[in-house]
Amino acid sequence: MPPDRRTLQVARVEAVGAYTLLVLRNDGGEVGAPGQFFMLQADPEPHGAYLPRALSAAWADAGEIAFLLDVRGDGTAALVGAAQVSVLGPLGHGFELHHGPAILVGGGIGAAILPWLVRDLPGPVTTLLGFREQRHAVCAALIDADATVVLEPTYVTEPLARLLPADATVYACGPDAMLQAVAALCAEHAVPCLLAMEAAMACGFGACYGCAVEIDGEWKRLCIEGPVLEAGRVLAGGHDG
Amino acid sequence: MGSLATRFCGVDLAHPVLNGSGTLDALAAGTLGVSAFVTKTVTLNPRAGNPPQRIAETPQGMVNSIGLANPGLERFCDEHLPRLADLGVPLIVSGGGWSREEYAVAVRRIGAHPAVAALELNVSCPNVDTGCISIGTDPAETRALLERCRAETERPLLAKLSPSVADVSAVALAAAEGGAAGLVLINTVRGMAIDRDTLQPLLGGGGGGLSGPAVKPVALHAIFHCRAVTGLPIVGVGGVACAQDCLEFASAGANVVALGTALFRNPGLVEEVVAELPGLLERHGVSTLDDVVGRAHHHQGKALLEVDANHS
């Protein structure tokens, strides 16, 4: 059963370079684990956006749930302009937090979900971030003050390649092409790798079949199987076991 | 205050709110309070479905191109049906196919299961090139399909029709003549979405099926005409999003309604609608949804169909 939808008040909205931070006042409700996601819709419902938006939190606890958004259309614009937001979640499977060293890899707005991991991972963390332009990279300060940041045309896989092999687990979120490249590098060096993936989603609880992604060699619903998956389950051209 | 309990095609229902086929996976999410569970369409062979992107938001709705993804008849009957039978609500299994014989095989097998209350024949999926959609655009094919399937089961057969045809009431009449016990109106309307930046189709399959409040007037019109022409009981579906919509669909001719796209936004919606219905019915001076069914067909003592026909 999906959890009950609840309405949370917007605590604050801040510009973070090209992105926007939306902080909701949590009512003590369940927040789940980093990498799980919520279906968010401005309340009252915006005229121009019929469906809720699937977003993973930047961080969350009993007091607040924060989201870093790339405001692109009517739905995200309505969210950052709302006084309250309807929230369904947490949904799906988040990151399993391994002990030992961690390498976090974020690309673009995919970096939005990393602050919570940095906070909760028990071992030492190395953070690698890639962005299109400097204005997108402003959010790095929210994630990890010591992060290695690269801008296009340099890809975040370059600093990752220099770190591997490593006795670490890689946690990655970003565009599909980046995730495939990260997965391939990790497979090459036999480094455990978890990917937080993204797909267009209408419901978030398995009803619409819209978020199909090739998982284990067949189309499966990302909201049910993921959105966090072991890289081997989605690596193009084969599986590493 | 009246009761919401009703009877549809011989199936007793606690209330008149169902789910549309393909809009709820009760094994993953539970029944969410529906009075009967309608399955996603099952085909003889397993189908992986269409490549992503499968959905896109559109004004007051969405387009989808799922492509009848399903585990196939064998696995559905062996693995899914026994678990669906434990849900505690009547089951309406939706079947599709590429030939009369494929439908017949599915109907025989599914109809033999004691937990199945009724079968829906999907002759209207917009996301496959041939098969069910081409059957549902042709009255003669639809009649022949219903006759063929009628011979395979005692269970009520419901024909789910597409509004993306020249005259849906002609197809509905053919379904009635072939032995349909009821109709499900409407399947999604053929539609498309273009990416605002790339100007390319958003859906992997190119086009898809439009659903949500955007199609509600299309659904009401199809229900109104099919009811007038066939007199068959109807599951009204297509943009139903609140208790008020239930009354409007009933007035057009639907006996019960199904929620689809609106459920994606709010999985608590069935319970909200069911809670709101009795008060809304009372405000209209009636005690059951049955009292509203077909009300739109007569206005100031005149039958509206002829008037409407001149404007369609």
Structure notes:
The complex is a heterodimer of chains A (241) and B (312). Chain A contains seven helices and 15 strands. Chain A is α/β, with parallel strands linked by helices and 241 residues long. Chain A folds into two domains: 6-91, Elongation Factor Tu (Ef-tu), domain 3; 102-233, Nucleotide-binding domain of ferredoxin-NADP reductase (FNR) module (Rossmann fold). A seven-stranded antiparallel β-sheet of chain A has the order 4-3-7-1-2-6-5. Chain A has a six-stranded mixed β-sheet with strand order 10-9-8-11-12-15, with helices on both faces. In chain A, strands 13-14 form a two-stranded antiparallel sheet. Chain A starts with 5 loop residues before the first strand and ends in an 11-residue tail after the last strand. The mean pLDDT of chain A is 95. With 312 residues, chain B is α/β, with parallel strands linked by helices. Chain B has one domain: Aldolase class I (TIM Barrel). In chain B, the strands form four sheets. An eight-stranded parallel β-sheet of chain B has the order 3-14-13-10-9-8-7-4. In chain B, strands 5-6-12-11 form a four-stranded antiparallel β-sheet, with no helix packed on it. A two-stranded antiparallel ribbon of chain B has the order 1-2. In chain B, helix 3 (100-111) links the parallel strand 7 and strand 8. The longest helix of chain B has 15 residues, at 216-230. Chain B starts with 5 loop residues before the first strand and ends with a helix. The model of chain B has no long low-confidence stretch (mean pLDDT 93). Classes of the chains: A alpha/beta (241), B alpha/beta (312). The interface between A and B is medium-sized, with 30 and 36 residues.
